[in-house]
Every structure is written in structure tokens, then in C-alpha cells.
Amino acid sequence: MVALAFAVFAASTSAVLVRWSAAPSSVAAFYRVLFTTALVAPVALVRNRADFSRLSRRDLAAAVVAGVALAIHFAAWFESLNHTSVAASVTIVQSQPIVVALAAGLVLGERITRETVAGIAVAVVGAAAMSLGDAGEAPLSDATLYGNALALLGAVTVAGYVLAGRSIRQRVSLFPYVTVVYAACALTLGALVAAQGHDYVAYPAREWLLFLGMAVGPGVFGHTVVNWTLKHLESVVVSVAWLGEPVGATLLAVVLLAEVPDAVTVAGGAVVLAGIAVTTLERERRDGSGT
């Protein structure tokens, strides 16, 4: 749980780093994942070289699918912001714990109690309040519906990424798993950058430092630590804890971007934390009682 809290904070730095970057969003996402892969792959080759040969074809294929799902999440979510309001996009993407909760019971056999469902509902309501704090409504046009659909795709794919990690990490060591996932994600995003016609290298030194920061903070200490926790925590708990990311991002924005949130955003953050607490305390109760 301590590692998960640290990972959520590290992931919270992503919004500030992306805001500072002037590069196209797909390029920033590509280099974030590529540099993260470059940082974790040597560790995997030194510590877990033999584990790669023991990867079954099924687990290898599943890890690749998880990486592609993560790439689709990044691509769909960022693109959705070009077609719909920030409020709609963020609210829809943050509905992913509902997808995880429903799928975890069907696919992974995890028991979802009423208390867990209540915690998820509270956290999602809080996340919606945060995203609606300072936003107006976009007109309901075909473009808006398209943007909302992309955001929903982002929610579903990141839920698939969490569920795949929860399943595979029971059998596969951390670094071989994330190396395969990040490599597949980077290759997918790299193909997207090429398809969009963006330049790969024509960026100033400041951008390269930001790309590296995204890899070290949100990448290594964020997503990689989250993948480590998936061996020890249920996917629903990990997924709901991710809703703490906008809380951390809001606090960092106050300090680093001088963006002071309004009362609705602050209240929504408190509700998110309450939902996380309900879900995690319920897990601890069930683990303690052996049920």
C-alpha cells in the first residue's frame, strides 16, 4: 500500500511535465515510454535474463497486448481532448475502475463486495466533481460524441492494461514483464508518430529533459511500481487508487504552475480520497478475516 501511494504521487507529476512540454502529445508519450523501456530493460537483462526464456507464449502475447492497450489509452485519451471538453474527457476516462471492477469478477474471479462497489462509486463521483470544477459544457455535436467515444476507449484500454498485469504478474517477474509491455507500447506509439507525420528529433534540449523526466517519474516510479503492486494487491484496489492522481496533480499545479483550484475541485479531491479509503480498508478487512 505504501508503494502504491508513492507510485500514484509519481504518476501525478505527469500532468505538470506534459503541460511544460511544447511537443505534440503523441511524441511526448512515445519518448516517455521509450525512455522508460531503456531504463528498465538493462535491469531485466541483468537480474532476470533467464526469466525471458521461461516466458510462455501465452504470457508473452498477453504482455504485448497489454502494451498495445496502454498505447491506445495514451493515444485515445489525448486525442479526445481535441474533440470534447476536458470535463467530459477526464470524467469518462476516470470511469475505468468500474470497468475493472466488473471485469475482475468475471475474468479474474476476484470477489467484489458491496463495500468495494460503494468505494468505487464515491471515488468516481469525486473525480467527476474535480473535472467539472472549472469547465463549461461543450456543444453536443458529432465531434463531441467522437471525443467522448475516444475517452471511453481510453478508459476501457487502461482497464485492460490493469487486468492483464494483475493476471500475468502472478507468474512473471516484474522487470521482464514491464520490459515487454513498455517495448510493445513504445513501438505502437512510434508507429502512431510516423502515421501523424511528426518529427522524431527536431526538439530543443528542454524537451528532451522533459521526456526523460516523464520516463523517470511517471514511467519508472509510477507505472513500474504500480505493476509491482499488482502482484500483491487486487486490481480493483490498484485501479481506484489511481484516482488519487488528479489530487496529487492538483497540489503540484498549485506549487509549480500557480494554478489554484476552486472549491468544487478541492471538495472533489476529498471525496476521491474517501472513496480510495473505503475500498482499501474493505480489502484489509477481508484479508484480515480470511474471507
UniProtKB/TrEMBL annotation:
Entry's transmembrane regions: 30-48, 60-78, 84-109, 116-133, 145-163, 175-196, 208-230, 237-257, 263-281
Keywords, alphabetical: Membrane, Transmembrane, Transmembrane helix
An example Gene Ontology CC term for this record: membrane
Residue intervals of the EamA domain: 4-131, 146-280
InterPro entries tied to this protein: EamA_dom, EmrE-like
Listed name of the protein: DMT family transporter
